Amino acid sequence: MNPTNFDLFADTELEQQPRREQIGEQSFVLRGFALPWLERLLPALEAVLAAAPFRQMITPGGFTMSVALSSCGTWGWTTDRSGYRYTRDDPQTGRPWPSMPEVFFQLAQAAAREAGFAGFEPDSCLINRYVPGAKMSLHQDKDEKSYAAPIVSVSLGLPAMFLFGGFVRSAKSQRVPLLHGDIVVWGGVDRLRYHGVLPIKDGRHSIFGEQRINFTFRRAGV
Description:
Elements: E1 19-24, E2 27-31, H1 38-51, E3 68-73, E4 76-80, E5 83-87, H2 102-114, E6 124-130, E7 136-139, E8 151-157, E9 160-164, E10 174-178, E11 183-186, E12 195-197, E13 212-218
Antiparallel strand pairs: 1-2, 2-11, 3-6, 4-5, 6-13, 7-12, 8-11, 8-13, 9-10, 9-12
């Protein structure tokens, strides 16, 4: 399946009414927040993926990630046997990562502001593609130069079970169901919480088909 073959004319989904749920001291799920932005997001996403297609990267331990990745913005996140890092150029093409579309930037700022983090200026957007069975192990986002800015994570397509843990990997994790259009924002005292995604279940979304697309906005530089 072509991951950029999205149906702009599919029936509008109304899984939920927009609302804010608190999952930590400075952590929130913004239910349905991205839905009004969808018509503008999809063409921008297609343009980014045309320039930097999804690819499955290798971890420093030599494992192939089940999630396929791309990036846009000043900094893109990559991993290989040499480690995890941000780069200005796409290692696959040798060219700078695609610029972050203005609609991406605006959505990230609006979501951060709704969660109490005004003035967020992301310079990196990691784009993840999950197919049924793909998952993300518990981890911390700690490759950024500063932890002052929040993380803004947008869910589109198939539902996911988000794991939101503590400050050590062994701490018990909350299980937070995420639906199409939901955004999770965490920062401040919660910025270094462990988090992950359980294996995606089989299904088919009316717009995205058999996949979940996740944008994770960060401030990678200083």
